[in-house]
Amino acid sequence: MHYKSYYQSPIGHITLTSDGQNLTGLWLPKHTDFEAQDDNPLQEMDLAVFDKAKHWLDAYFSGDNPKIDFPLKATGTTFREQVWQILLEIPQGETWTYGDIAEKIAKKRGKTKMSAQAVGGAVGSNPISIIIPCHRVVGKDGNLTGYGGGIDTKIMLLKLESVDMDVLYRPKHSKKP
């Protein structure tokens, strides 16, 4: 059985999911198809892991850098799970490129090179947004590339973390602020 709970945030309505013990998903307002990925309907329930995740989100949206004190279970291929573990290493207030992560994955796997595009696919499939900070990943030269929650949400999260937006660039089709 899988469960869900809701959190109203400054970026909109967030849905949290759990297997009963672990946080398995944090879905932003623009994520609309996550429930279709589960064979059974998600049941709304109060769980300790949801309470802890909501306290974490309260602290995060207040500008703090809270520690994760609840279990996460982001399920995917071995490669994706390795990428998500690396995302957890990105300090709040910093950004890394897909290439930076590709270098770390290559080293971890004993390879000389890894595709930044493959890393991008793994980053884009992160089921626990914000907490596993995929919003801190930018393209080559600091370009703000796609984000499942929307570029506007990515910008808001980076600003909340005091990232210097003057050193980052918006996608080529957008104007710099």
Describe the protein in words:
By secondary structure, the chain is of the alpha/beta class. It folds into 2 domains: 3-61, Double Stranded RNA Binding Domain, CATH 3.30.160; 78-167, Winged helix-like DNA-binding domain superfamily/Winged helix DNA-binding domain (Arc Repressor Mutant, subunit A, Orthogonal Bundle). 31% of the residues lie in helices and 14% in strands. It has 5 helices and 6 strands. The protein has helices at 48-61, 78-87, 98-108, 116-124, 151-160, and strands at 3-9, 12-18, 23-27, 43-44, 96-97, 137-138. The strands form 2 sheets. The protein has a 4-stranded mixed β-sheet, covered by helices on one side. α2 (78-87) packs across α4 (116-124) and α3 crosses α4 (116-124). The longest helix is centred in the N-terminal third of the chain and has 14 residues, at 48-61. It is globular. The chain starts with a strand and ends in a 17-residue tail after the last helix. Mean pLDDT is 90; it is low at 171-177.
Which key terms come to mind for this protein?
177 residues, two-stranded parallel ribbon, Double Stranded RNA Binding Domain, methyltransferase, Arc Repressor Mutant, subunit A, single chain, alpha/beta, 14% strand, 2 domains, 4-stranded mixed β-sheet
